[in-house]
Amino acid sequence: MARMYARRRGTAGSVRPYRKEAPEWSNTDAAEIEKIIVELRKDGMSSSQIGLALRDKYGVPDVKLATGKRVNEILREKGLESEIPEDLRNLMQKALGLRKHLAENKKDVHNARQLQITESKVRRLGRYYVKSGLMPKGWTYKPETAEILLSR
């Protein structure tokens, strides 16, 4: 299948091996892993950064296999979930950076197009999160208020 904003096909990527249980060499103490996740979140890490830290420093290849829950589910239970989902936040930060760049470089048409594409992704993802109940009803992306939302 072709990509949405490019006239080319996608490239194949590596896929993790299918497993039903954690490997025997991994750290599988669920209570300890949840405690580490809470500590890392309080240090200001996002859920993807927490997953990388658990993999690289603590020997947990897959949090769901070890605990039965995903990182976001654990954070939601502990009341540490962020207001804006991480993927939406990253896209909003990218759009904000593009806007700042275009304020200085008005004739940069390639980045103007990239800003259009990024903001349409933000709007589409925002609609999905509103429908699924993760964002409040009536939430819409406004470039003027994006910086205020991201600063929280």
UniProtKB/TrEMBL annotation:
Belongs to the universal ribosomal protein uS15 family. GO terms for molecular function: small ribosomal subunit rRNA binding; structural constituent of ribosome. One of its GO terms (biological process) is translation. This is Small ribosomal subunit protein uS15. Part of the 30S ribosomal subunit. The gene is rps15. Residues 1-10 have a biased composition (Basic residues). Residues 1-24 are annotated as: Disordered. SUPFAM superfamilies: S15/NS1 RNA-binding domain. It comes from the Archaea. The lineage of its organism: Archaea, Methanobacteriati, Methanobacteriota, Stenosarchaea group, Methanomicrobia. It comes from Methanoculleus bourgensis (strain ATCC 43281 / DSM 3045 / OCM 15 / MS2). Residues 1-60 form the Small ribosomal subunit protein uS15 N-terminal domain.
